[in-house]
Design goal:
The chain contains 11 helices and no strands. It is an all-alpha fold. The chain has one domain: Heme Oxygenase, Chain A, CATH 1.20.910.10. One of its GO terms (molecular function) is pyrroloquinoline-quinone synthase activity. Ring cyclization and eight-electron oxidation of 3a-(2-amino-2-carboxyethyl)-4,5-dioxo-4,5,6,7,8,9-hexahydroquinoline-7,9-dicarboxylic-acid to PQQ. Keywords: Oxidoreductase, PQQ biosynthesis.
Length: 250
C-alpha cells in the first residue's frame, strides 16, 4: 500500500516547526537588534561558508543524476548562487552584505576566519548530498519550506535595528524570497512522488532532520564563540580584525 502523501507532507512540515533554526536564540538576538557589531560580523563571516558551499553541494548532486529533466530543474540552483551574465548571484550579494557591515570582503571570501564547527557542519552537508540516495539528498533541501518566513523576519528586523541595513545590503534575502518558493515547490513534489514506501518516507524525514541539525549547529557555534565571552577557538575571526568600518548597529 502506497503511504499517504498528505500525511507525509504534514510530517515534513512538523519537523520544520519543531527543529528549524528560526527557533535558535542567536536568531532572536539578531532579529531583535540585540547583536553587537562584532556578533553581526561573525554571523556574516560564518554564514558565508555555507552560502559558498551550496553550489558545490548542488554540483555534487547533479553529477550523480542520470535523468536530464532532473538535472535541468536543479541547474538553476547553482546559477542562483554563482550568478550568470544577467544575475549577480547569491554569493556576490552576500559579499555586499559583508561590505555593508564593515568587513574586508576578500577576507570573508577566503573563509580563513570561519569557526571549525561551522566548517564541520557545512562539509558534512556537502558529503551527505554527495553520498546518500538521491531521495535523501533532495529531502535535505526541504528546509527551504521554512526559509521564506525567516527571510521576511530577518529583513524586517535588520531594517528596524541596524544602520547597515538597506535594499542593497539585504538583497540576498530579498532575492531568496523569490527564488526559494520555486525551488521548494519542485523539491517537495519530487520527494512526495519518490518517497513511495514507509521506509523511503522515514529516510526522507531523517534527511530533513539532518539538515535542520546542520543549520542549528552553525548557530550553536556562533553563540558559543561570540555571545559567550572568551569562547572563540584558535584561528577563528577575532573582533577588531579585517574590519573596514566600525559602526554597524543603531
Amino acid at each position: 500500500m502506497t503511504p499517504d502523501k498528505d500525511a507525509f507532507e504534514a510530517r515534513l512540515r512538523q519537523i520544520g516547526a519543531e527543529r528549524y533554526h528560526d527557533r535558535h536564540p542567536f536568531h532572536h538576538l539578531l532579529h531583535s537588534g540585540g547583536c553587537t557589531p562584532e556578533q553581526v560580523r561573525a554571523w556574516v563571516i560564518n554564514r558565508y561558508y555555507y552560502q559558498a558551499s551550496i553550489p558545490m553541494k548542488d554540483a555534487a548532486f547533479m553529477s550523480r543524476v542520470e535523468d536530464p529533466a532532473l538535472r535541468r530543474a536543479w541547474r538553476s540552483r547553482i546559477e542562483d548562487h554563482d550568478g550568470t551574465d544577467e544575475n549577480e548571484g547569491g554569493i556576490q550579494r552576500w559579499l555586499r552584505l559583508a561590505d555593508a557591515v564593515g568587513l574586508d570582503r576578500d577576507y570573508v571570501a577566503s573563509t580563513e576566519g570561519v569557526l571549525p564547527a561551522t566548517k564541520f557542519a557545512v562539509d558534512a552537508y556537502v558529503r551527505f548530498v554527495r553520498d546518500k540516495t538521491l531521495l535523501e539528498a533532495v529531502a535535505s533541501s526541504l528546509t527551504e519550506l521554512f526559509a521564506p518566513k525567516i527571510h521576511a523576519q530577518r529583513i524586517e528586523g535588520l531594517l528596524q535595528n541596524y544602520e547597515f541595513a538597506d535594499d542593497s545590503s539585504l538583497s540576498y534575502f530579498k532575492n531568496r524570497l523569490k527564488e526559494a518558493p520555486k525551488d521548494v515547490a519542485f523539491g517537495l513534489a519530487w520527494v512526495l512522488d519518490h518517497a513511495d514506501t514507509a521506509e523511503k518516507q522515514d529516510a526522507a524525514a531523517n534527511a530533513l532532520i539532518f539538515k535542520t541539525n546542520v543549520l542549528w549547529s552553525q548557530l550553536d557555534a556562533l553563540y558559543s564563540a561570540y555571545v559567550e565571552p572568551g569562547r572563540i577557538p584558535p584561528g577563528a575571526w577575532q573582533p577588531g580584525t579585517f574590519e573596514t568600518r566600525q559602526k554597524v548597529a543603531s
